[in-house]
Amino acid sequence: MKKLIVLMLLTFACVTAFAQEQAKPEMADVFRSSGKIYVVVAIIVIIFTGLAIYLFSIDRRLKKIEKGN
Asked: Which of 12, 19, 46, 53 has the fewest CB atoms within 10 Å, i.e. the most exposed one?
C-alpha cells in the first residue's frame, strides 16, 4: 500500500512537470548575453561549497562526540 501511494505521488509529480507550458526563460538569456550568468554560477558554487564544508565539519564533530561517549 505504501509503495502504491509513493508511486502515485511520483506519477502525479511527473505529470504536472510535463504539463507546464514551455516558456522561454528570458532572464537567463539576458544574463547570458551580458555575461552576468558567470557571476550567478560562481555565487551558487560558493554557497554550495560553504554548505558542504559546514556539513562535513558538523559530521566530524559528531563523530568525535560519539566516540567520546
From this structure: 19
pLDDT tens-place string over residues 16-47: 655 556 666 677 777 778 888 888 899 999 99
CA distance 35 to 38: 6
Which residue, 31, 56, 50, 33, is CA-closest to 41? 31
Cα-based distances in Å from 23 to 2, 16, 27, 28, 61: 36, 15, 11, 12, 46
How far, in Å, CA of 7 to CA of 43, rounded? 36
pTM over 0.85: no
